[in-house]
Amino acid sequence: MDAHSAQRVRLALEEAKATYDTIVIDLLDKPEWYAQKVNTDTAKVPYLVYGGPKLQPGDAPSGDAVGIPESLVILEFLADIFPNAHLLPADPTLRARARLFYNGLEKGLAKGIIVGFLFQEVPLQDLLGGLDNFQARLPPTGFAVGEWSIADAAALPVLLRLQLALKEGLGLRKPEDLKEAYATIFESPKYERLCRYIDDNLARPGVASSWDPAATKAKFEQRIQIVRAKDPTATSMPH
């Protein structure tokens, strides 16, 4: 479960103190049954199956189960079915702000800029510009819209993977480029608010149970090895 989108869902489930089961799908070697029986539209993860009997790998969801794809859609669904967990604020204005926060993140940092910097030769200045915008949207203290919400579940997994990749030199860029980026972002007073936001999230129990940096690092390395095996000098992944 190295995908940031999958961690989003697990983080929200942990915060809701929900009872749930997981079936881990290897993104680099997806089993055929997943696309044939479960997420038959896109075969992407995560995919939430709500209702029906417990599934084992290879099972198809029962006819009375509801299947929900797309991490942000799943987060809103969880906020609806676990109202006492307060995964979204009660105030309609703050709920709207939370949605704007994670929708903006999805269009910028999450989808293109971070992956683009690590694997597609996007310039450092583009990454810094995206982080500047993200940091500017944070309140002076607390979380994305004050109290913790699914806006934070959407953002944190993206930031954790960026921090890990830069610190460990995980990418197709030159090691010195990754080292420079890490120092510029995570060792600079300019991004003190961003770093404090990450630390505040990491202090929550739900994060500790949903984040496995060692496993995520191993998957990063596996992806890079696959690309390097085909082209040892590659500086970007094929689109």
UniProtKB/TrEMBL annotation:
Transmembrane segments: none annotated. It comes from the Eukaryota. Pfam families: GST_N_2 (PF13409). GO terms for cellular component: cytoplasm. Residues 1-86 form the GST N-terminal domain. InterPro entries: Glutathione-S-Trfase_C_sf (IPR036282), Glutathione_S-Trfase (IPR040079), Glutathione_S-Trfase_N (IPR004045), GST_Omega/HSP26 (IPR050983), Thioredoxin-like_sf (IPR036249). This is GST N-terminal domain-containing protein.
